[in-house]
Amino acid sequence: MGRRPRLLPAVGTARNMLEASLGDVLRADAGGRTPLVLVACSGGPDSLALAAVAAYFAQTDRCRVGAVVVDHGLQEGSARAAEGAAAAARGLGLDPVEVRRVEVRKDGMGPEASARSARYAALDDVAARLDASAVLLGHTLDDQAEQVLLGLARGSGTRSLAGMPPRRGLYLRPFLALRRQETEAICAFYNLEPWHDPTNQDPAFARSRVRVEVLPFLEDQLGPGIARALARSARILGQDADLLERLSAESYRSLRIDGGDGTLLLPEDGLLALPAALRQRVLALAALELGAYQPSFERLRAAESLLDRKGSAGPVQLGGKVSVHRQVRGRAVLQGEGSYGNLVLSSNRSNGPGVKQSHRPTQE
After folding, report:
1. pLDDT by residue (tens digit) across 251-309?
2. Whole-model pTM?
3. Do residues 195 and 85 touch, judged by C-beta distance below 8 A?
4. CB within 8 A of 66, min separation 6: which ones?
5. Alpha-carbon distance 246 to 227, whole Å?
6. E runs forming strands in 116-198
7. CA distance 89 to 50
8. Which of 71, 77, 86 lies closest to 122, judged by CA?
9. Is the model's pLDDT at 333 over the cut of 70?
10. Distances from the Cα of 204 to the Cαs of 18, 148, 199, 283, 302, in angstroms?
């Protein structure tokens, strides 16, 4: 009888990461049923390695493991690549395995964002229909480092620089501390032949340029630890972002006044008492409640300037159909309590007094 091959250290590490990530899922009582976990599998090295590691948990009866392969239809031969990924998942013993073809709409978000939106919609649908307890995503430490660099290039805030969270709802990212070279080694250990997406090398995409040109240059100039340093920064900033979001939500609940006619009021004195980091987040929360998309930093600063009581009283457009103005003496106040001393936020779908109709700008 042949000796079993020695377990690759990266496989053992990956199994421990997945077990820690699944945590409550493995311990949950699913009404007497073994919980189902789905792997979002593109057939690339990261997701295929994740599928192989997850299969171990099915083999040891810790959970059932299936896979969803999303075909975006953006490249010639994409259907063939999707079927190849599905066949690899089935070969690992995953069941059920589904291939979902999606339509990537050109809706102003850009090709990467549109593809991401379509992909998650498909994953949401399959997970709900199959009553899955979790959906596993194969993002690695290298993906996280790339995400942080892209956020820096955009001049983004804390949440964006925090990168991808290890958990959001049903979605888990167990490999955020694993390097891409380790997922490739795991695939080799299991004799898997991953598919390499050609767009990952296409300089037309910002993420591809970061992956192929920027990160290697930084590692050459600053040392090989730069990717780990960026990922560590993301973990630290993620904790900071969580705290700031909790505090701003509490502040918003304490300040928010329903102005009637679909408007929201925020007392000026209450806003001025907040640190700038919380004040801007409170303004953003009010805009989001009225249906705006995330206001830019520049728009939030323009809204803040209304509190200085110098120059114009607004309105300032906060993105989407939402605007904000400062209620001034002599202007008709809203029904109910007088609104002098408040910032008034309104959507152009409502007809709050004194608020001009706004027009939605082109979404980035």
Report:
1. 999 999 998 888 899 999 999 999 999 999 999 999 999 988 888 899 899 989 898 87
2. 0.82
3. yes
4. 36, 37, 38, 39, 94, 95, 96, 97, 98, 130, 132
5. 29
6. 134-136, 167-168, 171-172
7. 10
8. 71
9. no
10. 34, 19, 8, 35, 34
Q: What are phi and psi of 79, to 5 degrees?
A: -65, -40
Each residue of 192-207: pLDDT tens digit?
999 887 777 778 788 8
- Angle between helix axes 45-59 and 78-91 (nearest 10 degrees) is 30
Place of tokens 């100039």: 221
The answer to whether residues 50 and 15 touch, using CB atoms and an 8 Å cutoff, is no
Determine the Cα–Cα distance for residues 318 and 256; give it in Å rounded to an integer: 17
Q: Terminus-to-terminus CA distance in the chain, angstroms?
A: 62
Cβ atoms of 106 and 112 closer than 8 Å: no
In this structure, the strands spanning 171-172 and 167-168 are antiparallel
DSSP structural state of residue 311: S
How far is it, in rounded angstroms, from Cα 86 to Cα 99?
7
**Residue recorded with tokens 């929201």:** 264
Omega cis (within 30) before 166: no
Tell me the C-alpha distance between 362 and 364, whole Å: 6
> CA 237: distance to chain centroid?
15
Helix (H, G, I), strand (E, B) or coil at 164: coil
Read off the tokens for 223. 């040392």
Of 19, 97, 128, 99, the residue nearest 63 (C-alpha): 19
Burial of 91 (0-12, 13-18, 19+ CB in 10 A): middle
Is beta strand 97-101 parallel, antiparallel or unpaired with respect to 167-168?
Answer: unpaired
Which residues does 125 contact at the CB level (< 8 Å), separation at least 6? 100
Estimate the crossing angle of helix 226-255 against helix 276-289, to 10 degrees.
70
pLDDT of the residue at 224:
86
Cβ-proximal residues to 34 (8 Å cutoff; 6+ apart), any chain: 61, 63, 64
